[in-house]
Write a structure and sequence with these properties.
With 134 residues, the protein is mainly β. Helices cover 5% and strands 37% of the residues. It contains one helix and eleven strands. The strands form three sheets. It has a five-stranded mixed beta sheet with strand order 9-10-4-3-11. It has a three-stranded antiparallel beta sheet with strand order 1-2-5, with no helix packed on it. A three-stranded antiparallel beta sheet has the order 6-7-8, with no helix packed on it. Strand 1 (4-8) and strand 2 form a beta hairpin.
């Protein structure tokens, strides 16, 4: 049975379907992922057998390859949202937040924690607010 998940960018110009099961789900704290996301970590799903089908907006998909590294980022050229990509054609990387369908896999591990941002500690003790602050 093939599992598929639909996703999109923030502006909706790019829509896609990922067909195949996810092998792992990593929360990467490396400095490159912090730059990519503007946040504490990237949340990426990985699959060794999935395929990406661009449903709309394929002409708005751009891939940036950081020179002299394996680091890539795929994004919508209109809104900048992260998008999935096939890394070296042997693994599909899917930013978890781009999926519109529910994914039942839980994160496998925090990785590259030696690069963790100094402010990314004990976040469970920070106040939680449902919605925007008043």
């Amino acid at each position: 049975m093939v599992t598929s998940f639909n996703g999109s960018c923030l502006c909706g110009r790019v829509t896609f379907r990922v067909s195949g099961a996810f092998d792992s789900f990593f929360l990467c704290h490396c400095s490159r992922c912090q730059k990519d996301t503007g946040s504490a970590h990237a949340a990426n799903l990985f699959s060794s057998n999935a395929k990406i089908a661009w449903l709309t907006g394929k002409d708005s998909v751009k891939i940036f390859q950081l020179p002299d590294s394996r680091h890539q980022k795929c994004f919508c050229i209109n809104c900048g949202s992260a998008l999935p990509f096939a890394h070296n054609e042997d693994v599909v990387v899917v930013p978890a937040g781009t999926l519109d369908d529910r994914v039942d896999i839980r994160p496998t591990a925090h990785i590259c924690v030696s690069d963790r941002a100094s402010w990314d500690a004990d976040l469970d003790t920070v106040e939680s607010i449902d919605g925007l602050p008043g």
